[in-house]
Input
Amino acid sequence: LPPLEERLPEDVLVVPVVDSIGQYGGTWRRAFTGIKDFHAWGRINYDPMLRWPRDPNDPVQPGIAKAWEWSADGKAVTLFLRKGLKWSDGAPFSVDDILFWWEAIETDTNLTAAPHGEWMVGGAPMELEKIDDLTLTLKFAAPNGMAETLGLAFHGNQWPLGFERFGFFAPRHYLEQFHPHYNSALSDYAVFEEKAFDYNVERPVVTPWMLSKWEDGGSELVMTRNPYYWKVDPAGKQLPYIDTVHFARVKNGDAVNLLAMIGKIDMQQRHIDPDKWQVYQDNAERGGYHMALWNSADASAVAFFPNQSYGDPKYRELMQNFTFRQALSLAIDRDRINEVLRSGQATPRNITVIPDSPLYIPELEDYMTEFVPEQANALLDEIGLPVGSDGFRTFADGSPIELVVEVGFMSGSRLKRVQLTIENWQALRG
Output
């Protein structure tokens, strides 16, 4: 490798100290459940063009772009990339990597059906103007604030980000040889998909760690330090400090929790089941670990959205009835869910923004969240839903009301919350 001063960009990003200057070395042990569990390692190893702040009251922060400027009319934003930024193989990072993503991926219908919403205004896709190798202007048909907060600061990572296929740049110097538009010897996109995929250990990255070991069906995934990473601490030491991140591949979330309880995981939140809080506490000394409570930025761990456009007219009218939805909310025993599944550590609330958000409205957090089944039943009586001979509520014509709760990507404690809520609703018998 070249000496460090040749690997770091001229415009490094200095990361402020949270606790203290770190020490180099070591392996961070984690676990994941296989190839579809991309975010187990993707969420500790990504770098977007811009970044959301730690404090939601602060503005968007610089990332790969050291600065950006909006036009006075809000219809164009100019990005200024860091000078000397390099991919993990030492190749220079430039505006061409963004143009390649846009021309060869985002607007190639063989790979992307249509550009993502943050790059569209009024049905018109953005236009990209290259000023020089480090300067690029995004132009929109009308003002587009989503381009900054959603496009650049959230989805503005390396394509394809596993299975979500968002992105904003890709290593042109490596990938164009596998793209049919640039290589006439290729007749389809299968090779390109394989080479662009996050699990390809040969694909260059700009993230703290680069994938160094993975085989389909393998039992482990290993990431090692990116020697060309572009961030340093205040002492000028290149980040990250940790040499290696090792992921044991296990069958499911229960296996992740078992590894954690026997001290085989160093730090992890993903798949750690809060339902097992007491079990973790009981095994902490033996396993040589401690549990830390971490405030979540989620509006709610679980939320229910009545389908107000359901095909059946009777159910559509029912779901659109505000009083009915109020009754459903008043019938949920949030305190019991908190005690049973969170050992009282959570905050029963509505699905509204968190208190740290500048958009927080206190009275919305507690609106209709009290558990008052008597009032819920009164509201159901008020809108004309009688109790049938079997003790369950019916429509006014006597036909049964059968609510189907559909869930997605849900297991463990989240699924149990749904089950406890359903028990509350089944008890609404007048």
Q: What stands out?
A: The chain has a mean pLDDT of 94. The chain is about 25% helix and 15% strand.
